[in-house]
Queue: 2 jobs
Job 1
Amino acid sequence: MDARSGGAATLLSALNEACEDFQRYGQQIAAIHDAVHWELIGRIGRVGPGESPFALVGVVLRYERTTVDLGVDLWVREGAFEVSGYVTIDGRRMLIDLPDVLTSDVDEAIAALREYTRRLCAHRDVLEEVA
């Protein structure tokens, strides 16, 4: 395996690990709050033809009439990676907006993905913050 293949394999592995972390997070929040319904988000693709490729990992929490989205996006734009992390309420209000990380180094992009996943999954009281 050459360096590019190794980097791609490591990136896919890190995306899978992030999905697993968000899945555990959704399960833990649902165990604390019986009325919470959660759904894992994991997408890889393009928004449209000719658009930049992206990966999105996260979880959606539905509680009463409120929807909370926690996620990390990774885009590939002009030969660089852009990683962002966020928590939104009802698709409108931003509760957490982590600064974008721009890098051409796949290892730095993976480190940002892992750090943002860790930081978002550390918010155990997200529903209390919303209420």
Job 2
Amino acid sequence: MSVSSYLVCPSRQLMIGLGKRLREQSGTIIGFSIGNHLTSEDPQLTQALWRFLADTAGSELVVKFSDDEDFEEIAGYREVGGDEYGDITIEDYVRGGA
């Protein structure tokens, strides 16, 4: 089972997918990947992430994983790049949609 990672703003009930967590042997998280490339190598996702940080400035942000016990609580939040009703595409979000 692949574990997905999300940057979450609980007060805005908004999240953005970071991809699969990458760990060192010690268990320390060292990055995130989508498919066979690092998330940081995706220009559009990087733009969306910077927009997310600007939109949520001043709010608490947390990184959550799909295997966290409390993930079900945030699973219904609006997701940038998600494919559920009410989510927003990365393209629309980068263009200024909210």
